[in-house]
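dumping this here before i forget
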Amino acid sequence: MSARTLRIGTRASALALWQARRVAELIGAQAGAPATALVHIRTEGDARTDVPLWAVGGRGFFTREIDRALVGGEIDIAVHSLKDLTTVLDPGLTLAAILEREDPRDALVTRAVQSLAALPPGSRVGTSSLRRRAFVAHARADLMLEELRGNVPTRLERLREGKYDAVILAAAGLKRLGLSGEVTEYLDPEVFPPAVSQGAIAICARTDDAAAVHWLRVLDHFATRVACTAERALLRHVEGGCQIPLGGLARLEGRSLHLSASVCALDGAQLISAYGKADLATPSEALEGAVRLGERVGADLLARGASDIIEERRALKPADVP
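structure:
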């Protein structure tokens, strides 16, 4: 294999750098592995902090520039949070590995009380996610939902400053940064489903770069790959090109793959859920079975009325959200 240094493209946030360094560590642990070097790349999501994430058209807000650098040969490997990655990759790129998933749940961090249920009416809850807004509104219509951007440490600092009474973050990010002690409550994924692929780290390479792919394939975690394949197939089937208030979580138990998903209206008034199970005969057939399961659960959501919620989302403008 090539002895060239593998250039790893990453955002420069604390969490993104943790993920990229973890990938470099795993590559370096292999016998005969090449040297690695991190390349910091500024994405649209880093530059446009004044815009709510959901208000940006399309996807790839935190990944597009990194993937362009990969296609253009400026880097050899791209490391992403899988939940940020588009469900259809750019031509010439492959999702070479998905690392073992960290805790997929959302976590509540508060200044005083010990749970979402205990927050006083009118409490200010910060989040940049339409999904989180919708499911909080469904659980607690009496709370005030406010926009919150910035990296994980910045969001926690704004909570400490008293700008919010609570914030909701991905448990995985908090744990990876050694901040799990900040968590007030882990939100039950059965009633507060996480973002598709939340907690998983994606590693992309050029399809024709056999040298880079060689060092990545061994890092792929089978159970995580299967579960996230089902979740991404679900999202691809229902999203229609925009970010929608959808949560989903798949789990592989033996040869049985389970997938639960929900779509929630932005005001929390309507919640549509679906569940599916697939028995995967052999490992070689697992990914195809996962795709079929995701598409089946997605079709079930649409048949139950999720398309109305998606149309509501498409029509949404920043001024429509308080």
